[in-house]
Amino acid sequence: MNGRFSNFCTKFVTNTLLSAPVHSFVTFWPRSAMSHTVLIVEDNADIREILEITLSDAGFAVLAAETARQAMQQLDQLNQLDLVLADFNLPDGRHLVPDLKKVRPGLPVIVLSGDAYTARAALPQADAVLGKPVAGTALVKEVRRLLSAA
Fold it and tell me: Which residues contact 49 (CB under 8 A, 6 or more apart)?
């Protein structure tokens, strides 16, 4: 790696839940820069993996949960958690964002949804709502924005 960072491009072939291949242009930060922990809550394994790769390659420590219940269990066990990235349509996730905000009011939460307008209306507690599919650069930029504001 030369200089402070280097750019790279990764193309992921997606499953039927995404309308098009995801192109993720991520700025790679050295592993020593990992100072923030992000919990991804996504029931689709392929999408969860793409999100994990995108955020870990951007320098974040990443944890993952498949369900809202698993996410709340992890939250209870974690000393350091800086942000949650959650799917809007989790089978058991109707109350995930309000429950997260009750337990940790200052914890930033980003919601991903195929219908961002509906998600924003249904979850005013979310700090941000991003539409699916989301570009890796847009996701990383929003995570960094929320973490710098926290």
Answer: none
